[in-house]
Automatic annotation (TrEMBL):
Keyword annotations of the record: Capsid protein, Virion
This protein's record includes keyword Plastid: no
Signal sequence bounds: none
Family: Belongs to the manganese catalase family.
InterPro entries cross-referenced by the UniProt entry: Ferritin-like (IPR012347), Ferritin-like_SF (IPR009078), Mn_catalase (IPR007760)
Highest taxon above the source species: Bacteria
The name this protein goes by in its record: Spore coat protein JC
Length: 115
């Protein structure tokens, strides 16, 4: 989506849209940065504990869902909003599946093991 929205912009249009620094550093290439222009470092969050790791995954899905909703709230492009709506719903499903996995693991840990 970012590519489609910026592919035909001139350097001056990029600058006017507040993307001048991005353009100088990366042209029109996709480059992972947050809204303040800070590069994403994307660390992988893992503790080796399945419940802790799944809760981390749930948090990530919920943050993504919220971000998609906030973008929809400020966008007036129905095609972009439709795509973002799909992505938002996908995050909800992922979060639900991770929550189900947590419950399955808790049940398994609570069951008596006989060897």
């Amino acid at each position: 989506m970012v590519y489609k929205l910026t592919k035909d912009l001139t350097a001056e249009q990029m600058k006017a849209a507040g993307l001048g620094a991005h353009y100088v550093g990366h042209g029109k290439a996709l480059y992972y940065e947050n809204a303040a222009g800070e590069t994403f470092r994307m660390p992988i969050q893992a503790k080796g504990d399945p419940i802790a790791d799944l809760y981390e995954d749930i948090a990530a899905e919920e943050k993504a869902r919220a971000t998609y909703q906030w973008i929809i709230n400020v966008s007036d492009d129905p095609l972009i909003n439709d795509s973002l709506g799909y992505l938002r719903e996908r995050e909800i499903i992922h979060s639900q599946r991770f929550r189900e996995a947590v419950e399955l693991i808790k049940e398994d840990q609570a069951s008596k093991k006989v060897f």
